[in-house]
Amino acid sequence: MIISTLAAAQVAVEAMNPWLKSSITAVLVFGGLIHIVPGLIYFERRISAWIQDRIGPNRVGPVGVLQPVADAIKLIFKEDVTPEGINRAIYTLAPVLVYAPAILAFTVIPVGIDLQVANFSVGVIFLLTIGGFSVYGLAFGGWASNNKYSLLGGLRASAQMVSYEVALILSVIAILMTAESVDLNAIVRSQWAPGTLGFLGWNLFQQPIAFVIFFIAAFAETNRLPFDLPECEAELIGGYHTEYSSLKFATFFLGEYVAMVTMSGLLVTLFLGGWSLPWVEIPALPLTADIALSVLIFLGKLAFLLFVYIWVRWTLPRFRYDQLMGIGWKVLIPLALVNLALTALGGIFDWNWLIPLPG
Residue 156: CB partners within 8 Å, gap ≥ 6? Predict the structure, then answer.
């Protein structure tokens, strides 16, 4: 009976109008993405308390699970203070420019077997292009606030994101050369390999240098510790969002967490096999149950990377600004160029440093 129900559901999905199917997928993905953020905030507080041997949130709701709701209520009813001498239009638009690109970039990430909001054949290019727009929100917010500390934060954000985005894109190009495609679904499928060593097909093992570069650059791109120099409170009060309060500040805050989810989703897709699982063959004609299982696999990998994001933030100290720029330009970019050269030579001469996969 269960099999017949799933088969009927699959037939209904296949017969569904493509626009309706895309709309339902968009609602589910965006709804899930928005609801991940409060949970992520709660778990960040819990994990940081665990790392620092503290209790953490425990008053609002059972074991403090309603603390994000209390935070949202506080931000909604908090007075929206607007400083004098600002450029009001850009000041108001800046938080949206941080939040919107992060959530739009997630539309091309496949969260299950051929399941994504927008199925572009050039998904990687679209994602990197849209994701790069968030730097305008940080720079505009700092400049339009009429505050010197905010302006310095915006300048730091611009220099940091440009510097590390070069290294990040170079690491992604190495993946595109390996997969010979810019389609994210094709990149996921290229990482699946049969046999007992199937997980070695992941780009984590095929491109370890690119993985390290991307992983470090992802922290800098999302302004997370140890790369949160644009909002360094010890030097800049609060950086680019010093003059923001209420829902405008909340939008900046949401943008950071959505960017974390998007970057983690991209890392899962490019390096950790996406929604695929080693040793489990990808079905040519997936049933609804297969798609649901692939979504759970993707979410499991995503949750692990988000935990690492939080773990690193509450473990490592902040870099100095000169150290941050030095790592970007003197270490990551040259290393990414060397990796590109090795990838090109490996493609020409058919080199593979891994043991050939069986099957």
Answer: 229, 230, 232, 236, 239, 321
